Amino acid sequence: MTAEEYLNKLVDIDKRISAIRRAIEKCYARAESTSPQSSDIPPSFAGGTSRKIEDSVVMIADYKTELEKLCKSYEQMSYNVLCITDSMPDSRLAALIINKYINGMSWERTAEALDREANYTRKVLGPNAIKMFKKFYQTPEKALVSPLSREYNDNMP
């Protein structure tokens, strides 16, 4: 996987997490909005309301399982990106990567955070940040070390 694909996958996972959270909310709303049918037969026997609730609960469980997997992947990948950006010598380009790909900011908001024009940020700084990221992504054994663990190892006797 290339560095750009890695960053885009991170964004994709973040969007999938948001979509699954919205789907879970809809399932809860559907389960809570069902009301007993007006008949002498309890809903559990008629199959109406209790079946809808049961289906919603099953869907929620499935969604939560998928959400847990995606969250773990996202946490690991974003941690890797943070470690790589920590190794980048240009903090402005590192901030661009963090704001755009981890924080999910638009180019306009990223440019504002960097105190730059949006067009300049997207067309000049963006490609430069990706180039810099690629250099460190190609050598992950150096970049994927937590700054804290490096500090700890440096201070060991």
What can you see in these coordinates?
By secondary structure, the protein is an all-alpha fold. 81% of the residues lie in helices and 0% in strands. It has helices spanning 3-33, 43-46, 48-87, 91-102, 107-114, 118-137, 140-143, 147-154. It starts with a helix and ends with a helix. The model is unreliable at 37-41, 139-143 and 146-157 (pLDDT under 50).
Briefly, what is this?
This protein has 157 residues and is mainly α. Helix content is 81%, strand content 0%. The chain has eight helices and no strands.
Label this structure with key terms.
157 residues; 0% strand; mainly alpha; 8 helices
Rounded mean pLDDT is: 82
Q: What is the structural class?
A: mainly alpha
What is the CA–CA distance across the termini?
Answer: 38 Å
Q: What global shape is seen? A: elongated
Low-confidence stretches: 37-41, 139-143, 146-157
Radius of gyration: 23 Å
Q: Tally of extended strands?
A: 0
Order of helices and strands: HHHHHHHH
- How helical, in percent, are the residues? over 70%
Strand content: under 5%
Count of helix runs: 8
Largest sheet: none
Task: Spell out the blueprint of helices and strands.
Elements: H1 3-33, H2 43-46, H3 48-87, H4 91-102, H5 107-114, H6 118-137, H7 140-143, H8 147-154
Helix pairs in contact: 1-3, 3-4, 4-5, 4-6, 5-6
